[in-house]
Amino acid sequence: MLISCPHCGPRDLAEFTYQGDAARTRPDPASTDTAAWHAYVYERPNPAGLHREYWQHSGGCRSHLLVVRDTVSHEIVSAEFARKAREKTG
Asked: What is the 3-state secondary structure (H, E, C) of the chain?
């Protein structure tokens, strides 16, 4: 599987480290809602189809990326810098 790093170009999966699900929303750090924290820490969806994920190019430029991957075929649909993706969504 190749991931196209926006800085380095297409690179082998071995150069990247999975950083987690990009679709989840972290509870407010000041929150004492244990149910919300429990869900955030322990509950993981297992979607079939397109999934937004954070990856780090740990064997290259060390950039954090937002990757959209099809969990059925493992096709990488898009990869962009996580910071720029966050700026787009606010």
From this structure: CEEEECCCEEEEHHHCEEEEECCCCCCCCCCCCHHHHHHHHHCCCCCCCEEEEEEECCCCCCCEEEEEEECCCCCEEEEEEHHHHHHHHC
